[in-house]
Amino acid sequence: MDRIRVMDVRSLRDARRFAADKMAKVGLYATERLWCDLYCLEPGQAQEVHSHAGSDKVYVVVGGRALMTVGGEERELLEGEAALAPAGQPHGVRNGSEERLTVLVVTAPPFTS
Amino acid sequence: MDRIRVMDVRSLRDARRFAADKMAKVGLYATERLWCDLYCLEPGQAQEVHSHAGSDKVYVVVGGRALMTVGGEERELLEGEAALAPAGQPHGVRNGSEERLTVLVVTAPPFTS
């Protein structure tokens, strides 16, 4: 592979996009091996609990407070806290606060369904 | 897979560990599909430029300022900025500042060499 000449630098703050009707998912990087996204949630918005059989996901709260579900448990995550959603585990995140919530999510490998 | 009952929440701040002799790598999550680590660099410390044929890596600066190399380029990344090191591209990070540097790094898939 040729050496790349322009580094793909993304600012998490500048990349944020919020939508009035539902959680906005902003793609930062998408490769054959991983996805890196920002989930941007207005107060009251949620990513519904779901699961992927063959992909692990790391969630990192980069702004605000999250109500994170993994498996049978829901916990509040503060800014700078991370959680792992292992393959096959039901998981989701919601914004139960009065402030905007931004979560960095890395999924590996990408999935098609 | 059984539903997990204890969510593995990690605080990026609490997980930091610095070492006087070299960059400290703190493992947050290690699965079959990804590694999620914190790289903790005192001023002057570096992860030497290297590459992996089959793994992509996302770097996110969570504290301090990084001098990030990907391919033939070095750029300064500030807190809240991210870069992608695609498989096969030489990459590394160093702390050219006077403050401690902490970088979240997700590698997918894990590699053995």
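qc> The beta strands of chain A are 9-11, 24-30, 35-41, 46-50, 56-63, 66-70, 73-77, 81-85, 91-94, 101-108.
qc> done
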